[in-house]
């Protein structure tokens, strides 16, 4: 291990042999850090926090501090971070609120400076949270989501995979998968063509999704009627079925079409 002499690492913390800890960092007693991870200068890692392999945490981030939730009364809860994440300067991440609950973060995500992940969030793989992007409690981000800078997501909101949300957006309802959204409140403006192409989605699926988006978000049909029309007129492929199931399962309501 490469631990700077000014760092404070509790003797009970579990660090892999090759972990690096920078100047003035603080690692608490219930922390576990996996192979190849780098903890930068003045980073604080506390609480019951598990950091996977190959993560890099930059200057001043505070990881695993108590949830900012008035219901929290010292329960034993967790923050679990996967592999190969980049957590930039002054990012904050909180564990779950209830006894035994957890905030869970997948692999390969980028959290830019000053972004915040609140208690009980679920974040998939390969997401990008831009500067000062804010997730309230119990937010779910599926894989390959991009959240623009200064955007904020309301508690209990679900963001579908391969969607992109513009900077400064106010998200108060669920964001459909594969969508481009923006605004205050956020609205769907179309299919996230760049995102789905980068993910290697077949061209047929892109074409069918584009047709489905036109019906669901720009036809002025009620959502239930739009879903029925898509089922009748659009090819039944897995991407379209995923979209329809996401819409049907929504509890907060769905962001609909913009201008």
Please provide a written account of the structure:
- The chain is 17% helix and 27% strand.
- The strands form three sheets. It has an eleven-stranded mixed β-sheet with strand order 1-4-7-10-13-16-19-22-25-27-28.
- It has two domains: 2-138, UDP N-Acetylglucosamine Acyltransferase, domain 1; 197-249, Up-down Bundle (Udp N-acetylglucosamine O-acyltransferase, Domain 2), CATH 1.20.1180.10.
- The protein has 259 residues and is an alpha/beta fold.
Describe the structure in brief:
By secondary structure, this protein is an alpha/beta fold.
- In the CATH hierarchy, what is the superfamily of the largest domain? Hexapeptide repeat proteins
Rg, Cα atoms, Å: 20 Å
CATH C-level category of the largest domain: Mainly Beta
Helix content: 10-25%
CATH 2nd-level architecture of the largest domain: 3 Solenoid
For the largest beta-sheet, the strand count, sense and barrel status come to: 11 strands, mixed
Instruction: Note the gap between the termini.
Output: 55 Å
Q: Tell me, rounded to a whole number, the average pLDDT.
A: 97
Q: Count the strands?
A: 28
Instruction: Classify the beta-strand content into a percent band.
Output: 25-35%
Structural category is alpha/beta
Unreliable residue runs = none
Shape: elongated
Number of domains: 2
CATH domain fold name of the largest domain: UDP N-Acetylglucosamine Acyltransferase, domain 1
Name its key features:
single chain; Udp N-acetylglucosamine O-acyltransferase, Domain 2; eleven-stranded mixed β-sheet; 2 domains; UDP N-Acetylglucosamine Acyltransferase, domain 1; elongated; nine-stranded parallel β-sheet; 259 residues; alpha/beta
